[in-house]
């Protein structure tokens, strides 16, 4: 993977050999739980974490119905202890990517969903 922030097209066909075998070029890499792409846009990381949190929120929603199940305090504790750490893991690395509207909107959808579930609203 060639990492660059340049707008112009780079020569990405660089052959690197290890033990006389060419290494495969990839567009993104998962390093310590953060998905890094070749342009340092972090779009794939933001999409992956939002999908992961949405799945978790829907699983928790099954145990927190309007008239029974987990109460607001328990849901809020789960939000602070499970969902926020997933969303904010490695934030100092990718926080500049949140300047884009599409990335903000992705995380806003997750926050909206979890707030609706905590408030037990519709």
Automatic annotation (TrEMBL):
Top-rank lineage group of the source organism: Eukaryota
Protein's recorded name: Reverse transcriptase domain-containing protein
